[in-house]
Design goal:
This protein is an all-alpha fold. The chain contains 21 helices and no strands. Helix 1 runs parallel beside helix 8 and helix 4 crosses helix 5.
């Protein structure tokens, strides 16, 4: 049942990540900021036109999805098709979850407006509504639905309405009242779609690869759930670090570049990279080392047995190895988008998607199972990072500033020493998880954080960040 719900939620969730975390903002924010600085009235017209166009396009798209849902689900999750009960349940609840796409896409528009006006709190709190609604639906709706998968699906639908209402209030407060109207196809709209369409691919390599992963995972019982649970935990530091930095960076970079301050933009991005590394490395290493304890404490109960814990923890430890690449890509991509260049990330993305799909096929035939899916994703993610860096440097969009060998050592060593200390603590049997799992996990994480802060102090990393800030 969890396989079915996660598969049904994958499609609108895929579009949620495309719109809320990448392509939409990369195309929308630079145009909106430019208009708002030059002509606020034109900016309001731009927002209203985009809102109306999105609404009408999405209504038509969802209607088509409803009609062709069995074919779409068979294409994306071929492994379910042989089990008619499982496949029919997937199609039925997908009819419900797909409506979330309409709400979350319009929410991304309002988030882009608020973020561009330096109002970050309300958009950042929006996912909380989804989480609370999903939890609430298990208790309030499950008794009147055929099973928990249906209850969660209706929870997704209700959450979309609540999230939309939440951001609508804040957007109206700053003077941007959005409502359906007859859209005017002007130069701003055409410019938006020219940037938006290639950005759909360019800004979402990870999400497209996850969708490809789901196709192969559907051929193994339980694999979609293993990957989903592991990905959810891995997404926490990605959202807190990579996406947060990217969302905050794009408006600032756009503003600096529009004013001809390219050097300041490059210095700011260097600082963002350092902050990303400082947070991504310890997070990735910590997740890899503590993967079993984390999954055991979070999930092992009821139908989630120790076999599932072992499988999901293996998946998490591998996903965590790619976390630095995922985060640094989110930090670097705004350099393209702030300059209105969405085609280069798209070309890089297409290469990485082809590599990921090819490796998935290779590892699947080699019998690697669900772990082969993650290995393919890791290789594709680091290839994506390398190609993005190469293109940024070759176009003079970016260069490394104050990244001398001693600087890199200071950036990396605190994380490495923290990881070694954490392994040593585990080998010595301190904070044994069998005694009191939640408390022992909490203590391990707390001690790791304190050790990391100590090593940061020893390597005088604060001085490096101060220099970076002074340069900017």
């Amino acid at each position: 049942m969890s396989d079915v719900f996660f598969a049904a939620f994958r499609l609108p969730n895929f579009f949620r990540r495309i719109f809320a975390e990448g392509a939409f903002n990369s195309a929308f924010v630079p145009i909106f900021i430019h208009n708002n600085e030059k002509n606020p009235r034109r900016a309001k017209d731009f927002v209203r036109n985009i809102f109306s166009l999105l609404l009408y396009i999405l209504l038509f798209f969802v209607m088509m999805m409803q009609i062709f849902m069995p074919f779409i689900m068979k294409s994306f999750f071929p492994g379910f098709y042989d089990d008619r009960i499982k496949f029919d349940l997937l199609v039925n609840i997908s009819h419900i979850t797909i409506f979330y796409l309409i709400f979350i896409s319009l929410i991304s528009l309002m988030s882009g407006v608020l973020n561009s006006m330096s109002k970050f709190a309300a958009p950042a709190a929006t996912p909380i509504i989804l989480n609370l609604t999903l939890i609430f639906s298990l208790f309030a709706i499950s008794s009147i639905t055929p099973n928990y998968a249906y209850a969660l699906s209706w929870g997704v639908f209700i959450a979309g309405i609540l999230q939309f209402a939440w951001l609508f209030i804040f957007t109206a407060k700053i003077g941007f009242l959005v409502y359906p109207a007859i859209p005017k196809i002007n130069s701003d709209i055409r410019n938006f779609f020219r940037k938006f369409i290639p950005a759909i691919i360019g800004a979402n390599v990870m999400q497209i690869n996850l969708l490809i992963d789901s196709i192969f995972a559907s051929m193994t019982v339980g694999a979609i759930s293993y990957l989903y649970y592991a990905d959810r935990v891995n997404q926490l530091p990605l959202a807190l670090i990579g996406i947060a930095i990217g969302v905050a960076l794009l408006p600032k970079l756009s503003s600096l570049i529009k004013r001809g301050k390219s050097q300041d933009a490059i210095k700011l991005q260097n600082l963002a990279i350092k902050v990303g590394i400082l947070l991504a490395l310890p997070a990735g290493l910590g997740l890899a080392i503590l993967s079993y304890e984390i999954i055991y404490v979070l999930f092992e109960r009821g139908s989630f047995t120790n076999i599932e814990t072992i499988n999901v923890s293996k998946a998490l430890s591998l996903y965590a190895l790619a976390l630095p690449a995922y985060i640094l890509v989110k930090v670097l991509e705004p350099s393209f988008f702030a300059r209105g260049n969405t085609k280069t990330p798209m070309k890089i993305a297409l290469i990485c998607v082809i590599i990921n799909a090819s490796l998935n096929m290779l590892f699947y035939k080699a019998g690697y199972g669900f772990l082969g899916i993650i290995l393919a994703a890791i290789i594709a993610s680091y290839l994506n990072l390398a190609l993005i860096l190469k293109c940024l440097i070759s176009r003079n969009y970016f260069k490394f500033i104050n990244f001398l060998p001693r600087t890199c050592v200071r950036l990396i060593m605190p994380s490495f020493l923290m990881a070694m200390s954490l392994i040593a603590l585990s080998e010595l049997g301190l904070f044994n998880i069998s005694s009191n799992p939640p408390i022992s996990l909490f203590l391990k994480i707390l001690v790791s954080i304190l050790l990391y802060l100590l090593f940061l102090y020893i390597f005088d990393l604060n001085k490096i960040l101060k220099n970076s800030k002074k340069e900017h």
